[in-house]
């Protein structure tokens, strides 16, 4: 590879929030917002006709045709004749995955990884357990595998306390591409929302168990929340369990590795670890459920799937003392293993440029184009 592919020359812009920039909304902002909403509908619902889009967005079919024409011109949307159309052929539209790509990097020293995804979130190529000093070279090698016609939206980076590579080094190495960064707990939540379990009423919490600690990402209405100082996800220091040990110690993947290495049976070692770990995680889950009341809690990170499943089973079977009286955990939100337990952090990082340049602003995710036009008319 001789260099970094140049960024797109005609990107969708991030639409200003009407609450912040109401008087500044113009027709260009409306067109941008409409294009993003159409892409979101095609991403979530699959192939749709002009009439489908018109009914969902409250716009005329000629207006929808204009939006689709612009998106097709940028290589982001393609079309086909409906297979079951009888007398009158109907054209339906869908996202063109190979229209663009984005690179995701996880900078954690003990879990560095890279992934290249397309516009639909499909994995084109990935590398895990990369030495931190080789991550930039691996990322550039993955970019060389993109479809020839695909534009590169940018690079997303997942940050953690044990990063083996600075974000400044990433930005310098991948210039002129846009490099976006967020905490690993937030990128895991982004992946869960967009290509995993999806958002829920009340939002969801993604608990990330890593070798550098335990963190949580909160998503409500498609928006990630990190707290006033950006550290709301750091729950690993909570004193939990009967021994009041830090949560990160009770859930440590290193403890699980040691139990498996010294035990005679892997399944038994995982079961014993899960019983002890559940005693710690249950306290955190109860606290989260009582304060945030999410619609879903998912668990992922640097643990084997079997260990997470055993952990969830133990928590759901454990009694909880409330007001001095034991009760079951049936009142808690659904608790599951993450849809992307290990890959979620890196794939979520790759989704950062897609969210920034293609999808609707989460603050306006439920606003239709007709409502956007109404806001502009009042401005």
CATH class of the largest domain: Alpha Beta
Kindly state the percentage of residues in helix: 25-40%
CATH topology of the largest domain: Nucleotidyltransferase, domain 5
CATH architecture of the largest domain: 2-Layer Sandwich
Number of strands: 17
Arithmetic mean pLDDT: 83
Q: Quote the distance from N terminus to C terminus.
A: 49 Å
Please, how many helices?
A: 13
Task: Give the total of domains.
Answer: 3
Going across the biggest sheet, name each strand in turn. Answer: 6-5-4-7-8
Which structural class do the helices and strands define? Answer: alpha/beta
Low-confidence stretches: 4-11, 13-24, 365-379
Q: Give the SSE order as H and E letters.
A: HHEHHEEEEEHEHEHEEEEEHHHEHEEEHH
Textual characterization of the structure:
This protein has 379 residues and is an alpha/beta fold. It has 3 domains: 18-76 and 360-378, Arc Repressor Mutant, subunit A (Orthogonal Bundle), CATH 1.10.10; 99-189 and 343-357, Nucleotidyltransferase, domain 5 (2-Layer Sandwich), CATH 3.30.420.40; 198-337, Nucleotidyltransferase, domain 5 (2-Layer Sandwich). 40% of the residues lie in helices and 21% in strands. The chain contains 13 helices and 17 strands. The strands form 5 sheets. A 5-stranded mixed β-sheet has the order 6-5-4-7-8, sandwiched between helices. Strands 11-10-9-14-17 form a 5-stranded mixed β-sheet, with helices on both faces. Strands 1-3-2 form a 3-stranded antiparallel β-sheet.
Summarize the structure.
Helix content is 40%, strand content 21%. With 379 residues, the protein is α/β, with parallel strands linked by helices. The chain starts with 17 loop residues before the first helix and ends with a helix.
């Amino acid at each position: 590879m001789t260099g970094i592919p140049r960024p797109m020359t005609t990107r969708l812009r991030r639409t200003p929030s009407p609450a912040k920039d109401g008087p500044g909304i113009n027709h260009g902002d409306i067109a941008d917002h409409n294009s993003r909403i159409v892409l979101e509908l095609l991403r979530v619902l699959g192939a749709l006709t002009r009439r489908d889009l018109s009914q969902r967005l409250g716009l005329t079919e000629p207006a929808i045709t204009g939006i689709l024409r612009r998106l097709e011109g940028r290589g982001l949307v393609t079309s086909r004749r409906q297979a079951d159309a009888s007398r009158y052929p109907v054209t339906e539209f869908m996202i063109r995955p190979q229209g663009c790509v984005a690179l995701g990097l996880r900078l954690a020293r003990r879990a560095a990884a890279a992934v290249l995804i397309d516009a639909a979130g499909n994995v084109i190529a990935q590398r895990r357990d990369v030495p931190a000093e080789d991550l930039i070279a691996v990322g550039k090698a993955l970019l060389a595998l993109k479809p020839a016609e695909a534009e590169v939206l940018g690079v997303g980076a997942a940050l953690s306390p044990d990063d083996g590579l600075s974000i400044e080094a990433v930005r310098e190495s991948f210039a002129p591409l846009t490099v976006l960064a967020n905490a690993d707990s937030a990128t895991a939540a982004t992946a869960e929302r967009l290509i995993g379990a999806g958002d829920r009423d009340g939002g969801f919490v993604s608990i990330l168990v890593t070798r550098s600690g335990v963190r949580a990402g909160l998503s409500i209405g498609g928006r990630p929340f990190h707290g006033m100082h950006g550290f709301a996800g750091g729950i690993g220091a909570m004193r939990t369990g009967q021994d009041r040990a830090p949560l990160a110690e009770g859930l440590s993947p290193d403890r699980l590795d040691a139990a498996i290495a010294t035990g005679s049976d892997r399944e038994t070692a995982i079961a014993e670890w899960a019983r002890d770990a559940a005693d710690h995680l249950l306290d955190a889950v109860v606290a989260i459920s009582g304060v945030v009341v999410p619609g879903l809690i998912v668990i992922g990170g640097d643990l084997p799937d079997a260990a997470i499943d055993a952990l969830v089973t133990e928590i759901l079977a454990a009694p909880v003392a409330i007001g001095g009286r034991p009760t079951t955990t049936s009142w808690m939100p659904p608790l599951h293993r993450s849809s992307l337990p290990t890959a979620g952090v890196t794939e979520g990082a790759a989704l950062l440029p897609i969210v920034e340049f293609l999808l609707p602003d989460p603050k306006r995710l439920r606003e239709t184009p007709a409502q956007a036009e109404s806001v502009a008319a009042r401005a």
